[in-house]
Design brief:
This protein is α+β, with helices and mostly antiparallel strands. The protein is about 30% helix and about 30% strand. The protein is built from 3 helices and 4 strands. It has a 4-stranded antiparallel sheet with strand order 2-3-1-4. The N and C termini lie close together (about 10 Å).
């Protein structure tokens, strides 16, 4: 089953951003991940929370691939830099419809 990393970020210190994107993008791809979105173009349709500065979606071939990337020693310093220079929410979402009605794949 595919999994999706979904992140909402507000950048507090931009010094890490360019190097992070340059180095982490190929790292994600080596672990089988594929960026579906990494953008500041977020239009709120509903809800009271403020839209994030950056919205991110990465498709992973499996939960294990996502976890292997996230927990890797290679990613650790980049994860720490992102955490120090931003506030945000990260979630790992299963690519499934528990109702069984939608065709997901």
């Amino acid at each position: 089953m595919k999994y999706y990393s979904v992140a909402e970020l507000d950048i507090t210190d931009r010094s890490w951003v360019a190097d992070y994107a340059k180095n982490v993008t190929p790292m994600v791809e080596r672990y089988g991940g594929r960026y579906l979105a990494r953008t500041p173009k977020v239009e709120k349709v509903e809800g009271s929370r403020k839209a994030p500065q950056v919205f991110l979606i990465i498709e992973w071939p499996s939960k294990e691939a996502a976890a292997a990337f996230y927990e890797s020693e290679a990613y650790r310093p980049w994860r720490e830099a992102r955490s120090a220079g931003s506030h945000g929410e990260f979630a790992l979402v299963a690519g499934e419809d528990v109702s069984g009605l939608a065709r997901i794949g």
